[in-house]
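About this split. The held-out portion is used to measure sequence recovery: a designer receives only the C-alpha cells and must propose an amino acid at every position. Recovery is the fraction of positions where the proposal matches the reference. Here is one held-out target exactly as it appears in the evaluation file.
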C-alpha cells in the first residue's frame, strides 16, 4: 500500500478485507477444533459443518482478491509499482521470501493426528 501510494479509501478497503479473511479463518479454526473435541469419531454432519465453514473462508478470500484487483489494478498504483520494480529489482524478492516463510510455517504447524483406537 505504501509503495503503491494508495489513497485513504483504498487503505480502508485493504484493511477491511484483511480483517474479514482473518476473522473467517479464526472462526473456521474454532469450529473445526470444537467439532473435533465434541465428536472425535467420523460424522457426516461434522464433515458438512467443517466444509461450510471452510467455504466461508473461501468466499472471504475471493472477495478480498476481487477488492485487491479493484484497488491495485488502477493505472496510478500499477504504474507506481512498475516504476518501483524497475528501479529496485531486489524488491521483487520480498514476495518470494514471504511465500517461502509462509510455506515453512504451514508445513511446520501440521501436527500428526493421534492414532485411532482399535475396536
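Reference sequence for scoring:
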Amino acid at each position: 500500500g505504501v509503495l503503491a501510494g494508495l489513497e485513504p479509501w483504498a487503505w480502508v478497503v485493504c484493511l477491511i478485507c484483511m480483517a474479514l479473511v482473518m476473522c473467517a479463518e479464526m472462526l473456521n479454526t474454532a469450529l473445526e477444533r470444537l467439532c473435533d473435541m465434541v465428536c472425535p469419531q467420523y460424522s457426516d454432519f461434522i464433515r458438512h459443518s467443517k466444509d461450510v465453514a471452510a467455504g466461508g473462508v473461501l468466499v472471504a478470500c475471493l472477495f478480498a482478491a476481487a477488492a485487491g484487483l479493484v484497488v491495485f489494478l488502477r493505472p496510478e498504483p500499477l504504474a507506481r509499482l512498475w516504476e518501483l520494480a524497475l528501479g529496485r529489482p531486489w524488491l521483487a524478492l520480498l514476495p518470494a521470501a514471504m511465500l517461502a516463510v509462509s510455506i515453512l510455517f504451514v508445513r511446520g504447524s501440521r501436527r500428526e493426528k493421534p492414532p485411532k483406537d482399535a475396536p
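Annotator remark: The chain has a mean pLDDT of 84.
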